[in-house]
Design goal:
There is one protein chain. This protein is of the alpha+beta class and 416 residues long. It has 2 domains: 195 residues, no CATH class; 208 residues, 2-Layer Sandwich (Heat Shock Protein 90). It contains 12 helices and 5 strands. The protein has a 5-stranded mixed β-sheet. Helix 8 packs antiparallel against helix 9. The longest helix has 45 residues. The chain is elongated and about 120 Å long.
Length: 416
C-alpha cells in the first residue's frame, strides 16, 4: 500500500504538484489577456461563465507566454524551480540565460508546457476536491445536493447514492494520478529543454580555463617570490649560525639581509594575495622587474653566500613592462635553483642580452656532487617554461659539461 501511495502522495510528488500549481499561477495573466481577445470575438461579456471560452482564452494566452519566455531570466528561474521542486540534478540544468536560437526555442517550449500543464492541473485542483467532498457526503445529506445544486435525477436512485462516495474517492485518486504523471513528464523533459547547450558548455569551459589560468599565474608568482626568499633566508641564517662567534660583522650583515629579504617578500606576497580577495584592489607593492630590482636580486643572492657574476648587455629600462616582469621572475627562479642545489659558496653567472628579435636570459651554476631531489619534483622549471610559452618564447635547462645551464629566449616583438 505504501509503495502505491508514495508515487502519488510522497514528498517528491507533493513538490512536483506545487511546481504545477506555480505554473497555473503564472498562466493566469496570459489567460486574462486571452479573455480580452476572445470576449469581443465571441460576442460575450463574461468569458469565464463558459468553459469553452475559458479554454479558448487559455489557448490564446499560451503563445503569448512563449514569446515572453525570451526574457533572459526565464531559464535561470525555471531551472531553479525544477531543481528544488522536481528533483532534477543541478548538473543537468543550465543556470544562465539562453544563448542562441535553439536554446531560446527550447526554453520557450518548456515555459509553454509548464504553464499548460500547470494551468490544467491548477484548474482541476480547484474543481475536483469540492466535487469529491460533495460526493463523499451525499449519502448523509440525502436530497439536499440534488435540490440546491441541480444534480441529475439519477442520484435519486439508491444505488447511485451508495456509489457516490466511491466516485468521490476515485476522482481524488484520478487528480493525484494526473498530477503525478504531469510532474513526472516535466521532470523527464526538463534536462532536454532546460539543460546546457553546446554553447553553454563551451562558455563554461572557457570560464574554467580563464579561472585556471589566473590560478596558475598566481601559483607561479607565489612560488617564485616566496620560494626564492625562503631559500635565501635559509642559507643566510645557516651561514650566520656557523660564524656567530668568529665573525659578528658577517652575522649582522646576514641578519640585515634576512630582514630586507623578508620585508620585500611580504610586500610582494601582499600584492599577489590582493588579487585573490573579491572586491579588493591589488596590493600596493609593484611587481618587481629587471629594470627596478635586478641589482637588488643579485645583492640578496650574494648575501646568501653565493658568488654571483652578472653580464647585462641590454638597456633594461627600455624593455616592455610585461617582458621585464616575467624575465625578472625567470632570473629569480634560476638563482633560487642555484641556491637550493649548487651549495653555499658556489659561483653563479647571470647573462642578460638583447638583440633585435628577443631577450636572452642565461643562468649557470656548477653541478652539485649529488643533486638534491624532492618527492614529486619541484615546480620551478615548469613555471619557467610556462612563462616563456605564454610570451611566445622557449626555455631549456640541463647539464652542460660540469655546469647546470638555464637558457630562456623571449621575443620582444610578440610581447603582449
Amino acid at each position: 500500500m505504501r509503495a502505491f501511495a508514495r508515487p502519488l502522495f510522497g514528498r517528491r510528488a507533493r513538490l512536483r504538484w506545487i511546481h504545477l500549481i506555480l505554473g497555473g499561477a503564472l498562466a493566469m495573466p496570459y489567460v486574462l489577456v486571452g479573455a480580452v481577445v476572445v470576449g469581443p470575438v465571441a460576442g460575450s461579456s463574461d468569458v469565464f461563465s463558459s468553459f469553452p471560452l475559458q479554454l479558448s482564452s487559455f489557448a490564446v494566452g499560451l503563445p503569448l507566454a512563449a514569446v515572453t519566455s525570451l526574457f533572459p531570466l526565464t531559464r535561470p528561474l525555471e531551472s531553479a524551480a525544477v531543481r528544488w521542486l522536481c528533483g532534477v540534478p543541478a548538473d543537468r540544468l543550465a543556470d544562465g540565460p539562453a544563448r542562441g536560437r535553439a536554446a531560446k526555442g527550447r526554453t520557450a517550449l518548456w515555459f509553454t508546457l509548464h504553464l499548460a500543464f500547470g494551468g490544467i492541473l491548477a484548474g482541476m485542483s480547484l474543481a475536483v476536491p469540492p466535487f469529491a467532498v460533495v460526493l463523499l457526503v451525499m449519502p448523509l445529506a440525502g436530497g439536499v445536493f440534488h435540490e440546491r445544486l441541480g444534480f441529475p435525477e439519477v442520484f435519486d436512485q439508491p444505488w447511485a447514492m451508495a456509489l457516490a462516495p466511491l466516485a468521490g474517492v476515485a476522482s481524488l485518486l484520478a487528480l493525484a494520478c494526473c498530477a503525478a504523471a504531469a510532474g513526472a513528464l516535466l521532470a523527464r523533459w526538463a534536462p532536454a529543454l532546460l539543460g546546457p547547450t553546446p554553447e553553454d558548455r563551451l562558455a563554461a569551459a572557457e570560464a574554467r580555463a580563464a579561472d585556471l589560468a589566473v590560478r596558475n599565474r598566481l601559483a607561479r608568482e607565489l612560488h617564485d617570490c616566496v620560494g626564492h626568499a625562503l631559500s635565501a633566508v635559509t642559507l643566510q641564517a645557516g651561514a650566520a649560525r656557523r660564524v656567530l662567534d668568529a665573525d659578528p660583522g658577517f652575522v649582522r650583515e646576514a641578519l640585515a639581509a634576512i630582514e630586507e629579504t623578508t620585508r620585500r617578500t611580504v610586500g610582494e606576497l601582499d600584492a599577489v594575495l590582493g588579487l585573490l580577495r573579491d572586491g579588493d584592489a591589488p596590493g600596493t607593492a609593484p611587481a618587481p622587474t629587471l629594470a627596478t630590482d635586478l641589482d637588488g636580486l643579485l645583492h640578496r643572492t650574494r648575501t646568501a653566500g653565493m658568488t654571483v657574476t652578472a653580464a647585462v648587455g641590454a638597456p633594461l629600462e627600455a624593455l616592455p613592462p610585461v617582458l621585464s616582469r616575467e624575465a625578472y621572475r625567470i632570473v629569480q627562479e634560476g638563482l633560487s635553483n642555484a641556491l637550493k642545489h649548487a651549495g653555499e659558496g658556489a659561483g653563479v653567472s647571470v647573462r642578460v642580452a638583447l638583440d633585435d628579435d628577443g631577450l636572452d636570459l642565461t643562468v649557470e651554476n656548477p653541478l652539485p656532487p649529488a643533486p638534491a631531489t624532492r618527492p614529486g619534483g619541484g615546480h620551478g622549471l615548469p613555471g619557467i617554461e610556462s612563462r616563456a610559452r605564454v610570451l611566445g618564447g622557449t626555455a631549456s635547462a640541463g647539464p652542460a659539461g660540469d655546469t647546470w645551464r638555464l637558457h630562456v629566449r623571449l621575443p620582444t616583438r610578440a610581447t603582449p
